[in-house]
Amino acid sequence: MDLKQLHAIVEGGPHGSFAAHLFDAVIGVAILIAIADAIVMTDPEWAGAYGGWSQLIELIAVGVFTVEYCLRVCVAVYDHRARYRHSLWGRLKYMASPMAIVDLAAILPIFVALFLPLSTDEVLLLRCVRLFKLLRYFSAFDTLAIVIRNERAPLMAAMTLMGILLMMIATIAHILEKNAQPETFGSVPRALWWGIVTLTTVGYGDVVPVTPLGRLFGGLAVVLGMGMFALPAGILATGFAEEMRRRNFTASWNMVARVPLFERLPAFQIAEIVDLLEPLTVERGETIIHEGDTPDGMYFLVDGQVRVLLASAPIRLDPGTFFGEMGLIEQAPRSATVIAQRFCQLLWLQRAHFDALMAQHEDLKSTIEAVVRDRRARQRPPGGGA
After folding, report:
1. Please, which residues bridge with residue 345 across strands?
2. Coil, strand or helix: which one is 209?
3. Are 41 and 48 in contact, with CB atoms under 8 Å apart?
4. How many CA within 13 A on the CB side of residue 330?
5. What pLDDT digit, counting tens, does each position of 152-167 carry?
6. Residues 6+ apart with CB under 8 A from 201
7. Distance from C-alpha of 268 to C-alpha of 364, rounded to nearest angstrom
8. How far is it, in rounded angstroms, from Cα 122 to Cα 124?
9. How many CA atoms lie less than 13 Å away from 197 in the CB half-sphere?
10. pLDDT tens column, 165-178
11. Nearest to residue 232, comparing CAs of 140, 165, 134, 169?
12. Cα–Cα distance between 300 and 295 in angstroms, integer?
């Protein structure tokens, strides 16, 4: 097995081969077991009873993580983005990447302990860093990182505003409460603790205003805190929704462009059609169209396979074909049942949108009508006459 094949296993991800899935499963299980062992061993009773087993688990986990780290460094030159192409500098560049640093930190505790005296708490902290290795297996974290990068300007503005508000609240609280509570409000730095827990609406209760004006101002600070700390959350939520909408649009665009009926359309017309088509997924064995139903739209088969149950003999439809158009063109009930042979990705065009699309694009209308005439003429409609 060469390094390129090894890269397909080590960095295969969710779309990789069985060997790639097995590799990820082994690493994932090792992470969870190592973290669970580190947490359980903080209990003195468990540590005393199972300390030997804990050492064995740690040795095995470090061995697995060390092999994983070495493999990822070796195959980094085959990254599909060609960021680490150079045999030496590319690997060094990969070793400086965030996830590679996390992988290295996962094996540090046992090696550092060989040369430096570490306390139990320090070793525990280093072992818990292994939790960050799980980020590699969740693509949603990549999306969140993109959202934070895209929204960094409004987020920085919100954080700056929160810092200004915090300083103002701490200063005013110091002025109002310094005589009544010099221990907790005697200076602005001391009042900052009350300002933080108040703005975050946590309110531990260890520091509270006691003067009438102080309490009135404290209530105002709580209300301001609720609004201010909701601002970054709203920015992130809006950015996340926008990023998901962008990704869904891109996926829908790619699905539309793969349909032969639309592949020669200009980009602006594909964009118009994307807004009309609704992506659907159908499980194997699910009925898509029932014979005798009133037509509600037509379907484009992007991926998968469907079977059309005709009176003469069932026929099969493959990706790139469409069906359901006859009932719309002829204003007649469905004449066949269509069942998914495999998991299918479909694009559904509602009847109202179909009429609007045909009215706007005469070339598409002519093409579909020609297909309908050909199917009726041959009496073996590839679309099943549905």
Report:
1. 281, 303
2. coil
3. no
4. 16
5. 899 999 889 889 999 9
6. 222, 225, 226, 229
7. 15
8. 5
9. 12
10. 999 999 999 999 99
11. 165
12. 15
Is the torsion defined by CA of 318, 321, 324, 330 positive or negative?
A: negative
Residue 337 pairs with which residues in a beta bridge? 309
Would you state the structure tokens that stand for residue 96, as one six-digit string?
Answer: 């400086």
Distance CA 57, CA 41 (A): 11
Alpha-carbon span 57 to 197, nearest angstrom: 41
At 193, list the tokens: 């603790």
Phi, psi of 104 (to 5 degrees): -70, -40
For 40-51, the pLDDT digits (tens) are 888 888 777 777
- With residues binned 3-state (H G I as helix, E B as strand, rest as coil), the percentages for the chain, rounded to 5, are 65, 10, 25
- The string of DSSP letters for 40-71 reads HTTSHHHHHHHHHHHHHHHHHHHHHHHHHHHH
Going by pLDDT thresholds of 50, 70 and 90, the confidence category of residue 81 is: low
Taking a C-beta distance cutoff of 8 angstroms, is the pair 137, 28 a contact? yes
DSSP E strand boundaries for the chain = 278-282, 287-289, 297-303, 306-309, 315-317, 322-323, 337-340, 344-350
Q: Cα dihedral angle (104, 110, 116, 122), rounded to 10 degrees? A: 80
Across-strand partners of 279?
347
As beta bridge partners, residue 303 has: 345
What is the model's pLDDT at position 383?
46
- d(CA 58, CA 47) in angstroms, rounded, equals 13
Domains along the sequence of the chain with CATH: 3-137 (1.20.120.350), 152-244 (1.10.287.70), 267-378 (2.60.120.10)
Quote the CA–CA distance of 12 and 380 in Å, as a whole number: 43
Confidence check: pLDDT of 13 > 50: yes
In the chain, % of residues over pLDDT 90: 13
**Polymer length of the chain:** 386
Q: pLDDT-based confidence at 1, cuts 50/70/90?
A: low
